[in-house]
Amino acid sequence: MRRFSQLAVAVLALLATGIIAAGSLWLGGYDPLVAGAAMFQGSFGSGTAILSVTMVRAVPLIVTGLAVALAFRAGVWNIGAEGQLYAGAIAAAWVGLSWGSAPGWFLTPAALVAALLAGAAWAAIPAFMKVRLGIGEVIPTILMNFVGIYLAAFVVHGPLQENRGVFPQTDPISDAARLSVLVEGTRLHAGFLIALLVGVILWAGLRWTHFGFQARSVGASPDAARVSGMIESKRVLLVVFLSSGAIAGLAGGIEITGVTFALYEGLSPGWGYTAIAVALLAGLHPGWVVFTGLLFGGLEAGAGAMQREAGVPAAWVSAVEALVILFVLAGDQIRRRFGA
Amino acid sequence: MPEVIAVVAFLEASVRLGIPLALAAMGETITERSGVINIGLEGSLIAGALGGALGALAIGGAGGGILVGALGGALVAMIFAGFAVGLGTDQIITGTAVTLGGLGFTGAIYQARFGTTGTALTLPTLPSVPIPLLSDIPIIGSALFNQPPTTYFTYVLAPVLWYFVYRTEWGLELRAVGEEPDAAAAAGVRVKQTRFWATVFGGTLAGIAGAHLALAHAGTFTENMSAGRGFIAIAVVVLGRWNPLLVLLAALFFGSASALQFQAQTFGLAVPYQLFLAFPYLLTLLALAGWVGKSRAPASLALPWPKDS
Q1: B105 phi and psi, to 5 degrees?
Q2: ipTM of this complex
Q3: B2-125+132-289: what fold?
Q4: Which residues pair with A264 in a beta bridge?
């Protein structure tokens, strides 16, 4: 019943967003049908759109969405996926550049493992502050986002700048460090499979393992979990926090090894923040994150087509994403109040 | 005396970059004192910037722009407060959504109104007004006292807010709501109203900060021109220990860290400027951890009230 009403909230939120989105387009003098058709065409309308655009854009959203969902399930308010993603991207680029002569079977996994570790390290500072010093994680994770973004800016202007020294970006990583293409002739890369794998691991881990039970208990009621005595809340929080950071870091590593092959400033258009919307619409459920990530990937893929063909500003899609979050929040609140 | 000129330019840039942060952070200080953390502040800032641009064009003159910018910032904060305070939704998630939506809507409205051709919009600007005598002080005079009126407004507001928070009945109620909302409610304070209006006040100041960006700094509006200042302001509040006077100083410090990037070469600093930009955030982390002074958040910050909603 609970699962059903959660789904109902998500569907109703999407419907309400659709109505307001269409209404605002109409008010702005655009034809909602033309815009909608262009959006669909650009996101799910053809094989190329699905494989080369939507699914590729969905990968960082799914992976960061999983990072956020895991953290939020245990009551860890990790707003730092953005910085953790940059830490992972820096590490992956560094490995891909400096061990360029290593064979591919070693180099790609090494770059991704480095991304995982860097993401966890980035989360370790706010995690330590939360567990040891009792300082709420919201502000520290936001602060670490800025530090991560500036660190990336520093390395592409300094130690990892391309050899030509012209643009603030790294040289392309060696071919051996790159993820393979899944479907010949498209841009879909193996990172999508990694995203699915992380989703399955989290889903099964949260559902069936003892640790997953502990994490969910701590998230549902930290006091009850502590009083019951069987759960070391602090250890659970620490492991969840670091894992969440590692997964967000992995998202950065996948983007470097699968899509851009280089690090530059502004690599992420704010995936770490959009991830919160992705995770929330999925009811923080890892399985559903894959679908909401694809949905948001489709929205962003369709935004470009909509701008080209219907003249609708691409930025409008962010406003639509925001509406989805607000409606889900409101729906959850109303559902709870009326005990459905 | 090239060094003196560089120092003057550095101080001037510090103040110029610090003031919008100070305005937004002083507003957020009041909001957070009531127990609400408004991560949607960035949305208020960008709405203030667009409101400033549209207002300056429609009403004519920078003054009208500031007014409409303030309204824009307040409106966005009302949306946030309606959800987070009224409905009791999670403040962090709501704030993230409001920021995302604010950046999206303003970008879309701007493109729909002015097109995507990339020709920059030219706005009437808010001129600097030198204050007689004070602006003649060597070195710091022109940096501090040859600024647009919004800067002077900020200087005056800091002690006023300090007095309000620490020395008035309303300030006491505000702090009570942020520390012990249950006790405050039992004493007859209307918790939700206090939190709502404290949030709207914060949004209004962020709106003025945004309008200041558009009208006093840039003379134009561009998408995402708030550039994360709403989040920086939240860090500034922490470094300023939720005290309006210290928040003003913390904002000027953040401003001077960004100003160094323009002056690093003149001063012959070998450290890359990106590290200067990161420095204030690291210092704020240390401040939070209690290693640089003591910085303690209001006890009920980010907790919805009543608890079971």
Answers
A1: -65, -45
A2: 0.87
A3: ABC transporter involved in vitamin B12 uptake, BtuC (1.10.3470)
A4: A169
When the pLDDT of each residue in chain B is averaged and rounded to a whole number, the result is 89
CA distance B288 to chain A (A): 8
Using an 8 Å CB-CB cutoff, list chain B residues near A274.
Answer: 100
Domain that holds residue A115: 60-290
Q: Tell me which of B46, B281, B308 to substitute to probe the interface with A (most A C-beta atoms closer than 10 Å).
A: B281
Return d(Cα A5, Cα B51) in angstroms, integer: 39
Q: Judge: A325–B272 Cβ closer than 8 Å, yes or no.
A: no
Count the domains in chain A. Answer: 1
Distance from the A321 Cα atom to the nearest Cα atom in chain B, whole angstroms:
7
Residue A110 to chain B, least CA–CA distance (Å):
28
Reading phi first (left if > 0) and then psi (alpha if -120 to 50, else beta), residue B215 is in alpha
Report phi then psi at B265, rounded to 5. -65, -40
B69-93 pLDDT, tens per residue?
999 999 999 999 999 999 999 898 8
Domain boundaries defined on chain B: 2-125+132-289
CA distances from B108 to A20, A309, B50 (A): 15, 16, 11
Out of A43-47, A55-59, B12-16, B275-279, give the one with best mean pLDDT. Answer: A55-59
Identify the band that residue A1 occupies on the pLDDT scale cut at 50, 70 and 90: very low
pLDDT in tens, B139-179: 788 888 988 999 999 999 999 999 999 999 999 999 999 99
A65 within domain boundaries = yes
The predicted structure's pLDDT at residue B125: 82
Chain B CB contacts of A332 below 8 Å:
89
Q: Is B235 in Cβ contact with A322 (below 8 Å)?
A: no
